[in-house]
# Entry
Amino acid sequence: MPSSIVSLQDSAKSQQLLIKPTSGIALKGSITIPGDKSISHRALMLGAIASGETVIEGLLLGEDPRSTTACFRAMGAEISELNSQQVIVKGVGLGNLQEPQDVLDAGNSGTTMRLMLGLLASHSDRLFVVTGDNSLRSRPMSRVVKPLVQMGAHIWGRKDNSLAPLAVKGQQLKPIHYHSPIASAQVKSCILLAGLMVDGQTTVTEPALSRDHSERMLRAFGATLDIDAATNSVTLTGQPTLQGQKVIVPGDISSAAFWLVAGAIVPGSDLLITNVGVNPTRTGVLEALEMMEADIKRENERVVAGEPVADLRVKYSQLKACEIAGDLVPRLIDEIPVLAVAAAFATGTTVIRDAAELRVKESDRLAVMATELGKMGANISELTDGLEITGGNKLAGTAVDSFTDHRIAMSLAIAALNASGQTTIHRAEAASISYPNFVDTLTSIVQGS
Ligand code: S3P
# Structure
């Protein structure tokens, strides 16, 4: 839909998103967000390895779940055409993934590669080679290779087996108790998925609680898990019978976060975001925005297929600076780029610490947010493990770059809504990794004003 405020320009290789707010725009309307990325990956994977049929409603149709789909189709799972209404997965049954005839390509998706490695490592006598795009081939895989090798896995890769492409020769693995040095749901889930084929119990202890979608869904599919909340430990009993299930994927709070911040910073805004997953391991962004005195209300709270869901209403209010650190960080890890945008419009200095993990995401999100938001005039500086942002500078539109990182592209678009003049976001097509309709929704809420 053409709009004078939001427009797209295509060049040979990439897409530019142009945003030029008129004075006095306010964001209004009701927004439906796409399905949760983490839950979509897990539904496809567990569906593929379970016996029988899994029916997925609300699957995210972004590039990342498409990568997972292609990989598991190549290993024998039958996955119907992807759509957000209903996807049917006919699983191969635990232990029956086939050796693929070609390299498995995880694209841009760290979740696909790291979770899948746990499954591949435990499929005896089969050889798998996994790779990804430029970004994924530079992201650390040693965090999953190391514990898998402790379980007896045979994995080879570049840079001392730490970078993809990786070759995996499946083995019968042994149970371990792994004390992960980082709070990472990808690490935890990789080990638990490897533990499915193990004779015995596999335990993962993490330094702080990361998202628990794998634990919830493994239980729903029939696995036995013991969770010790006091020590952030989860123990899986190996060799369960996994049976296909119906999975209803809630909207992704990481995608809702863009609209929460947009509504909070653009004067006069009033947005309703419906069907948002509010699993407590993911709601750090709500707590941070609450600390910043944002006007956000949860409405219509309910539980859908084992995951808590709510509608969120956000209205403009003057934000205040806050501190984000410690155990809160894993619960808002993907929302830090857009929280940095919120901080640029808050009074006072916001400090984000304990977030060094952002340096090994789809881009170095600390460095990229500091330079790109800085170009727009924000007072933002990098710390070794975070960011310091002093709000109050008026932002001015200019040319910025996503660095092919979906969350950077969308965070900069939200900043542009409250900047003077035109912002041009280069390589904006990256948004389709997790949010294919981002520009349409953006257009509809500025036009609704
Ligand atoms: C994810 C876990 C997080 C998150 C990523 C999705 C998952 O990564 O950043 O977008 O689905 O398990 P880490 O486990 O590396 O923190």
